[in-house]
């Protein structure tokens, strides 16, 4: 229940400032007891601390609460240069990436989803990557079915993989 009054306070306070800094936004720091100080052998990492701004999709990661806040501050400054910030205490709209390129693959995309991702349906955008699918056998299936090594491609985006398959 304390979240709403605090968020409202930041919202009201924002009308008395012309430009907003990270200090003008509510920040939530969370401790994850199963977090690790470094990535494990598979490369995945759950940091012990995360810092985020409710309503704005920014999250800072760190091994300490201060490190998570510092990472959040860095991401906030980068975000501020890219596009306008939402008013403190409000939520920014969700933006969905374009999917024009990936939808152009038609039947090949359907086959890829069924045989490689082994799913009946999944939402993919032009920015979706193999990293979005934690199954360790996805790359192996691409190699076996299509003879393409995803690790030799310029990036791990699914569009790039499908381009390589279509060019073969």
Q: Rg from C-alpha positions? A: 20 Å
Distance separating the two termini = 57 Å
Principal-axis shape equals elongated
- Biggest sheet record: 3 strands, antiparallel
Q: Order of helices and strands, N to C?
A: HEEEHHHHH
Annotation field: number of helices: 6
Number of strands: 3
Helix percent reads 25-40%
Task: Provide the low-confidence segments as ranges.
Answer: none
Mean pLDDT: 88
How many domains in all?
2
Strand content is 5-15%
Structure description:
The chain has 168 residues and is of the alpha+beta class. It has two domains: 3-82, no CATH class; 100-167. It is 36% helix and 10% strand. It has six helices and three strands, in the order H-E-E-E-H-H-H-H-H. A three-stranded antiparallel β-sheet has the order 1-2-3. A hairpin with a 2-residue loop joins strand 2 (49-53) and strand 3 (56-62). The longest helix is centred in the middle third of the chain and has 18 residues, at 65-82. The protein is elongated. It starts with a helix and ends with a helix. The relative contact order is 0.11.
Question: How is this structure best summarized?
Answer:
The protein contains six helices and three strands; from the N terminus they run αβββααααα. The protein has two domains: 3-82, no CATH class; 100-167. The protein is α+β, with helices and mostly antiparallel strands and 168 residues long.
């Amino acid at each position: 229940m304390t979240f709403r009054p605090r968020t409202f306070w930041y919202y009201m306070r924002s009308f008395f400032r012309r430009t907003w800094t990270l200090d003008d936004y509510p920040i939530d720091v969370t401790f994850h007891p199963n977090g690790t100080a470094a990535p494990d052998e598979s490369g995945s990492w759950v940091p012990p601390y995360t810092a985020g701004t409710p309503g704005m999709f920014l999250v800072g990661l760190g091994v300490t609460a201060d490190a998570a806040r510092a990472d959040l501050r860095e991401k906030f400054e980068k975000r501020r240069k890219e596009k306008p910030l939402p008013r403190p205490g409000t939520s920014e709209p969700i933006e969905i990436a374009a999917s024009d390129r990936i939808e152009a693959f038609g039947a090949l995309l359907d086959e890829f989803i069924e045989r490689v991702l082994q799913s009946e349906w999944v939402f993919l955008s032009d920015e979706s990557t193999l990293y979005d699918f934690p199954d360790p056998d996805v790359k192996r299936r691409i190699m076996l079915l299509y003879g393409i090594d995803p690790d030799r491609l310029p990036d791990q985006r699914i569009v790039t993989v499908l381009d390589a398959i279509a060019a073969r």
